[in-house]
Amino acid sequence: MFLTTISATDEDSGRNAEIVYQLGPNASFFDLDRKTGVLTASRVFDREEQERFLFTVTARDNGTRALQSQAAVIVTILDENDNTPKFTHNHFQFFVSENLPKYSTVGVITVTDADAGENAVVRLSILNDNENFILDPDSGVIKSNVSFDREQQSSYTFDVRAVDNGSPPCSSAAKVTINVIDVNDNPPIVIYPPSNTSFKLVPLSAIPGSVVAEVFAVDGDTGMNAELKYTIVSGNGRSLFRIDPVTGNITLEEKPTVADTGLHRLVVNISDLGYPKSLHTLVLVFLYVNDTVGNSSYIHDLIRRTMETPLDRNIEFKKPPS
Ligand SMILES: [Ca+2]
Ligand SMILES: [Ca+2]
Ligand SMILES: [Ca+2]
Ligand SMILES: [Ca+2]
User: Fold this and answer.
1) Confidence of residue 310 (pLDDT cuts 50, 70, 90)
2) What distance in Å separates the CA atoms of residue 263 and residue 286, rounded to the nearest whole number?
3) 3-state SS of 116-169?
4) Ligand number, closest to the Cα atom of 85
5) What spacing in Å lies between the alpha carbon of 225 and ligand 4's midpoint?
6) What is the pLDDT of residue 318?
7) Ligand 4 mean position to 90 CA, how many Å?
8) Pick the CATH number of 2-76 from 2.60.40.60, 3.30.70.20, 3.50.50.60, 3.30.420.110
9) Residues lying with their CB under 5 A of ligand 1, a single-atom ion
10) Where are the chain's structural domains?
11) H or E element in which residue 300 lies
């Protein structure tokens, strides 16, 4: 490829003015025509590999006592847009807490372009996201345009595109996933017993170890934030009952005696194992120790009246009507 013509002058005449051109060292990628001084490239250059070449050329006359002079040649390789923008990852993964305020920074996309000048000026955009995120086209900073609720949506995935300013422009794409980390923002919800006013009959003949009632709750969070622990916090003064901390099953610890007959109000605490803050719910479990239910409206009346007793105080056993 033709680059330029090197030319020198000589004020002598004849052979004393005949000029021969010669390349100095460090010019292995170039050819110089000895007679015409035409400088050509002997290979294809890659600016990303080497941008400048510096070498010397010598002009020598054909005099019997040859005279010569030297000049420095600098060849600068101009850029071509032959590199597409490169993302540092094919798939960017970011982790954010739910309940993060809108417009918080959730991640930064990094992209490089090996070219120079405008050929390396890259702008970023989001391809397919329903305006849940805002991407700064220059800095690559991704901000949320929504407040995250992991219980509604636990991850978001979309594609981003990088386009350089070359003509024609080069572009590339990458995937982005925003993972929403759970925060313990849901207390346990009691499924069973269905209400705080229902009761279960515990016959005097019930066998110790048998399940007399069940407590079951769910928690909308995940992991430890949804792991539940059941405990009886009051109403079990004689330790007649025991609750399984994991299943919530309430079993009879010992055979009830006549002294145990009547209504027992167990206050059960259901707490999650959330960190740093655990959330909890209280539920009332009424157990009526007697041979038969007898008059159930009487028991419901008792249950209503227990509401006047604070939950941290054991209610007095009420004798069934004779
Ligand atoms: Ca280039
Ligand atoms: Ca480029
Ligand atoms: Ca929870
Ligand atoms: Ca949550």
Assistant:
1) confident
2) 7
3) CHHHHCEEEEECCCCCCEEECCCCCEEEECCCCCCCCCCEEEEEEEEEECCCCC
4) 2
5) 7
6) 55
7) 29
8) 2.60.40.60
9) 47, 79-80, 82, 115
10) 2-76, 86-181, 189-306
11) helix 296-306
Strand, helix or coil for residue 17: helix
Tracing tokens 């690559």 back to the chain, one arrives at 140
Q: Strand pairing of 52-61 and 68-76?
A: antiparallel
Give the per-residue pLDDT at 319. 56
> What confidence category does residue 322 fall into, taking pLDDT thresholds of 50, 70 and 90?
very low
pLDDT of res. 316: 61
Q: Cα–Cα distance between 26 and 307 in angstroms, integer?
A: 98
> In the CATH scheme, what architecture does the domain 189-306 have?
Sandwich (2.60)
The two beta strands, 52-61 and 19-23, are antiparallel
Ligand 1 centroid vs 90 CA: distance in angstroms? Answer: 22
How do residues 78-132 score in pLDDT, each as one tens digit? 999 999 999 999 999 999 999 999 999 999 999 999 999 999 999 999 998 889 9
CATH code that applies to domain 86-181: 2.60.40.60
pLDDT per position as a tens digit, 122-162: 999 999 888 999 999 999 999 999 999 999 999 999 999 99
pLDDT-derived band of residue 58, with 50, 70 and 90 as boundaries? Answer: very high
277 is written with which tokens?
Answer: 């803050």
In whole angstroms, what is the distance from residue 273 CA to residue 50 CA?
Answer: 60
Determine the pLDDT at residue 317.
56
C-alpha 75 – ligand 2 centre gap (Å): 22
The pLDDT assigned to 197 comes to 81
Find the mean pLDDT for residues 55-79.
Answer: 95
List strand residue ranges (DSSP E) for 1-108, in order: 2-5, 19-23, 30-32, 38-41, 52-61, 68-76, 86-87, 91-97, 105-108
Distance from C-alpha of 281 to C-alpha of 188, rounded to nearest angstrom: 6
CA of 122 to the centre of ligand 2 (A): 8
